[in-house]
Amino acid sequence: MSVRELVVLGTASQVPTRHRNHNGYLLRWDGEGILFDPGEGTQRQMLRAGVAAHDLNRICVTHFHGDHSLGLAGVIQRINLDQVPHGITAHYPRSGQRFFDRLRYATAYRETVGITEAPVDADGPLARTGGYTLEARKLSHPVESYGYRLVEPDGRRMLPERLAAHGVKGPDVGRIQREGSLGGVTLEDVSEVRRGQRFAFVMDTRLCDGVYALAEGCDLLAIESTFLDEDEQLAVEHGHLTAGQAARVARESGVRHLVLTHFSQRYTDPDEFERQARAAGYEGELTVAHDLLRVPVPKRR
User: How many CA atoms lie within 13 Å of 165's alpha carbon, on the beta-carbon side?
Assistant: First the structure.
């Protein structure tokens, strides 16, 4: 059975706390696993969350600040120690190649698994599979940073009443799906577009065009909200978002489920992030993330 969910491994920003590990997020998507921003301690959080190295197919790093990338060394070595039987692709800003190289070969180990390096240096598609297209958009942070967006291709939803009206039944339903028409009846006559699902991952950034391009029409948006609204000036200075800003992006972009994460250690009441997000007018499903949380991608409409 296919599973589509976000496994939250860590939710702290620059400094971890007693209850929040550094960043780490695994998107499970129909048998594939995409690991985003493995910060320090990610390997242990994977163990606690029941995530194995074998579950990984891609690693996506938004930028090379330590809380988003220092876990790479351990994760890559674990991939090799466990002799993952498939290749893994790593995406990261090309400008940070020297950091990726240092982390990939931080210490001596036996390299047994092929990791394909696919650095990012422009907006646009990074990979296309049968199940999704992975895209990147540049963000606004003191170091080069990219957000990631996964888009499932649109499909068709068969409509029983139209099938019956055209006398299409049994094996002929499969035939018309495969061939596009049958006896003068087209696939469009008996079905409608089933919109593909969309997921976006937006970390350290100020408000910018890239944030909105990533969030547009998402079923599930994981987005940083490092600061509360009263500290908006700090957010701008350090290249981050507030809870209210993140929620307004979600509201204006038609996001169905908003996941707020990447919280500054200065705040002790996580409920305040939800209050400010609601005050900003977001009315969809809302989650203030905590470590080891699992967030399912919303079912299709």
Answer: 10
Who contacts 148 (Cβ-Cβ below 8 Å, separation ≥6)? 36, 60, 62, 91, 126, 134, 135, 136, 200, 201, 214
From the list 30, 37, 55, 67, the catalytic residue is 67
> How are beta strands 198-202 and 191-194 bridged, if at all?
unpaired
Q: What is the pTM of this model?
A: 0.93
Active-site residue 121, yes or no?
no
- What is the residue-level pLDDT of the chain in tens, covering all 301 positions? 579 999 999 999 999 999 999 999 999 999 999 999 999 999 999 999 999 999 999 999 999 999 999 999 999 999 999 999 999 999 999 999 999 999 999 999 999 999 999 999 999 999 999 999 999 999 999 999 999 999 999 989 899 999 999 999 999 899 999 999 998 999 999 898 899 999 999 999 999 999 999 999 999 999 999 999 999 999 999 999 999 999 999 999 999 999 999 999 999 999 999 999 999 999 999 999 999 999 999 998 7
Residue among 75, 23, 71 at smallest CA distance from 54: 75
